[in-house]
Specification:
This protein starts with a helix and ends with a helix. The chain has seven helices and no strands. Helices cover 43% and strands 0% of the residues. It is an all-alpha fold. The mean pLDDT is 80. The protein has a domain of 107 residues: Cytochrome Bc1 Complex, Chain D, domain 2. Helix 3 crosses helix 7 and helix 6 crosses helix 7.
Length: 182
């Protein structure tokens, strides 16, 4: 019983000690774990006072670079892309082959391997009205615009594909249109 009273007394004393004045900071063990030193990694001084490179790393795009797509997601933007955009990459077997690979991954489930709109999702009646490339009035610019922004039920694929992969898919879709027209 004596030990029980001693334990209760210690708990009461520990409670009063732990409930100190909250307006004064308590002792911190390893304070650098609680309060980190802020820095601006894009600032002029960078980390540890070392200057930040003013040139982007090779193979990357600087912030504000020109890899953005500025044509808006509107009917007017679609028509502008259709009228003004042309495929900047050369037509080659390598580009066509990679375009087919990317098309099979991202497009064939809906549009079908032949571009006839009869993909797996259409066959399983998950979506209806998937367009046939042969029946559409499309060109390289309009195809690229739809990949970037999506259209109707199709969402944007801009985040899944690189700039070059998008244009490779455009080349492959144009080849599918030619084959469907035969």
């Amino acid at each position: 019983m004596k030990n029980f009273r001693l334990i209760i007394a210690l708990l009461v004393v520990a409670s009063f000690i732990s409930c100190n004045n909250r307006r004064t900071p308590s002792l911190q063990y390893m304070p650098d774990m609680y309060v980190s030193v802020p820095y601006n990694p894009n600032g002029a001084e960078g980390l540890n006072g070392n200057p930040v490179n003013s040139e982007p790393v090779a193979g990357t795009i600087a912030r504000g670079g020109h890899a953005s797509y500025d044509i808006p997601n509107t009917n007017e933007g679609y028509e502008k892309a259709k009228a003004e955009l042309t495929n900047p990459i050369e037509a080659s077997e390598e580009n066509l082959e990679n375009g087919k690979k990317m098309y099979d991954i991202y497009c064939a489930t809906c549009h079908g391997t032949k571009g006839d709109g009869n993909g797996v999702l259409s066959q399983r009646e998950k979506f209806s009205g998937i367009p046939n490339y042969k029946d559409r009035d499309i060109n390289a610019g309009s195809i690229y615009h739809v990949i970037m922004h999506g259209k109707n039920l199709m969402g944007s694929h801009a985040s899944q594909l690189t700039y070059k992969e998008r244009w490779q898919i455009v080349q492959y879709v144009e080849q599918l249109r030619i084959e469907l027209a035969k």
